[in-house]
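Section 5: illustrative case.
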């Protein structure tokens, strides 16, 4: 029998370095009193000033209008269940720039009397822009292939009218 490896213990400093290098922003939402606590990276990501009384409604105002109802519904739904969740949405930053955020988190396990959700925000703007570019390219390629097939079909029809045998 081989010996199993023990799981490494990460020091707080190692965890801080890993979080920083990944560009991860940390947050906790206390559902009962609707307060958000975020780290400095999260404030930077959301492009807002550091405030002591940050609420879900305050953050919701920064969510892109087309995504706002979906984000609110997702967060309300996660209040009723314990467990992991993930949602991607757009936020508006200074100058009406749009940034894509992925919110991932975990509700408490039901043992804590205070309902809290804790998680991370990731800036996934680059990935979303690449996906949009790929979709645009795929749509354009599909359009061009359809045009070529229509051209080939048209030439076949014209040629078939002027010939008498299949060899011609």
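Designed sequence:
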């Amino acid at each position: 029998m081989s010996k199993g490896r023990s799981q490494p213990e990460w020091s707080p400093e190692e965890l801080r370095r890993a979080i920083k290098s990944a560009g991860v922003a940390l947050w906790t939402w206390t559902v009962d009193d609707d307060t958000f606590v975020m780290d400095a990276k999260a404030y930077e990501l959301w492009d807002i000033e550091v405030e002591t009384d940050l609420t879900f409604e305050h953050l919701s105002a920064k969510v892109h209008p087309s995504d706002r109802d979906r984000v609110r519904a997702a967060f309300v739904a996660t209040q009723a269940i314990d467990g992991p969740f993930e949602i991607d949405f757009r936020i508006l930053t200074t100058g009406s720039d749009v940034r894509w955020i992925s919110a991932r988190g975990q509700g408490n396990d039901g043992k804590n009397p205070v309902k809290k959700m804790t998680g991370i925000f990731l800036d996934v703007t680059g990935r979303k822009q690449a996906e949009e570019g790929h979709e645009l390219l795929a749509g354009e390629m599909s359009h061009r292939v359809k045009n070529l097939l229509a051209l080939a079909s048209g030439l076949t029809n014209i040629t078939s009218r002027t010939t008498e045998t299949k060899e011609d």
